[in-house]
Design a protein that fits this description.
heterodimer; A: 115 residues; seven-stranded mixed sheet; four-stranded antiparallel sheet; 11 strands; B: 117 residues; mainly beta; 12 strands; globular
Amino acid sequence: EADIYQTPRYLVIGTGKKITLECSQTMGHDKMYWYQQDPGMELHLIHYSYGVNSTEKGDLSSESTVSRIRTEHFPLTLESARPSHTSQYLCASEPRPRGPYTEAFFGQGTRLTVV
Amino acid sequence: AQTVTQSQPEMSVQEAETVTLSCTYDTSESDYYLFWYKQPPSRQMILVIRQEAYKQQNATENRFSVNFQKAAKSFSLKISDSQLGDAAMYFCAYRTPRGGGADGLTFGKGTHLIIQP
């Protein structure tokens, strides 16, 4: 299995709470991503980063924010959780391409439920 | 914008049989990559197979092979000798080499593959 870890795996939290979803990888990858996955739906890119101090918004608009202070760490924060944020969040990383593109490595995901 | 369509929400196959999962995509790019990812229940998504658009030869990985039809923008996955461990969600995904715009993979909605013992 790939060395990319997400915590917590499952989280049930009340409306209005601030939450941070953790993602860490030990592969030294420059690129990291956050995808949102609703049940029975495709994954949508919500944030990505090319390296330290680099963050960009993805295709799907999200109220979450991310930071990239260290190469290995790419946390996602929701300042005030709402039921509409209930979803599964997947973190992924990729090595810097030195030839043909290889693959993205995914964490196990965090299933967030806001009540 | 690129789109990926998987028209089979669920497929079922008998163990040891062969199954084909369908995927079509839409892009104006000529150079890109296509992937099939497998997501077992409560486990990490892992790469099954990848195909570079500039290669005419279909990719194969042991029991997994693809039928890549560039003109038709079709990319199906064939699983031979299905095993119980193949049961999972399978996602077709697309990516351009340079990322372009919002970087990352574009996914289909997935196909839930059930293996009947």
